[in-house]
Amino acid sequence: xxVATPGRLGVGLVGSGFMGRAHAFAFGAVVQVFDLPLRPExxxxxxxxxxxxxxxxxxxxxxxxxxxxxxLINDPAVDVVAITAPNAMHKPIALAALATVSRAPASIDxxxxxxxxxxxxxSTAPPKLQSSSRF
Length: 135
Prior knowledge:
135 residues, Rossmann fold, four-stranded parallel β-sheet, 4 helices
């Protein structure tokens, strides 16, 4: 997962229930609240069926919908994965997403990760992972 276009941060959202909708809204509104170097771009939404994912993606403004979160975490346009699926799904999705990062050296400035000149040595910066559980 790397930033494909300068100035943008490709967002992948897993789950489109209440919390997924709240996250989608927050990603869309964050640039109105904070002066950020990157603008979130709603790229891929994954949910448990094509029908649910397609409807939610259309409603929330995502460019693409998938029914398999594995497709989302492997999409090169996705730079950040927001997991809003049920708590029991967080760990396997997060571990799989982190595994995709390990294929390329981690970098604090992920825009550099596509440039072979900047990725010849592994970075000492770990990928960032934030997690919260309601229960």
